[in-house]
Amino acid sequence: ACWSCKSPDVPRMIQKDGELEFFTGKWAKYGNVNRQFNWFADCHDSKTAELTVGRPSLQRGLESAGLDMKKVSETEMRSLVCAQCHVEYYFKKTDWKDAAGNEQVANVVTLPWANGMTVEGMESYYDAIEFKDWTHKISKTPMLKAQHPGYEIFKSGIHAQNGVTCADCHMP
Question: Is residue 68's pLDDT more than 60?
Answer without folding.
Answer: yes
